[in-house]
Amino acid sequence: MQDYIEVESYGKVFPKKGANNRMPYAHQKGAMENLNIINASRQYSTMIVLPTGGGKTYTMSMWLLKNALDQKKKILWIAHRQMLLDQAAESFQKFAYSEVIPHIPFFQYRIISGASCHDRMIDIQATDNLLIISKDSAGRDISALDIWLRGEKDIFLVIDEAHHSTAKTYRKVIE
Question: Which pTM was predicted?
């Protein structure tokens, strides 16, 4: 099995047949179980705290595949570094198996940043299910996010490296 996925700036991800051979560790299972409990609440906000290398991106992408994308809910994933954007996109693609997302034929993602290999805010389509955006790009054009979110009742917002979320640009996007 291929361990590395060449990440494009946007695309459709079709679920792979079969089962994911990567099993979550106990701490990742526990985090996902707690997210399930919290998600049952009407409104919630939470934070996953794991040490470096503890699998935060894997844990969140697995949980969001099942509990957001498979339920036809949009995800806005924000990070401050291009490497984190690509890592998130790779994780969603790598672990998109039909056992995790059985109710959708595919999902559409888009990576947005100032890098020449990524898209721009103007490229956002209403059909994008997953936006993985640099905080600076999001902060420069909030109106594009407003259009993308128009009519949505639920949105999943992920702040990668959440300790940065108190910064002015993050606050602007969150609000």
Answer: 0.90
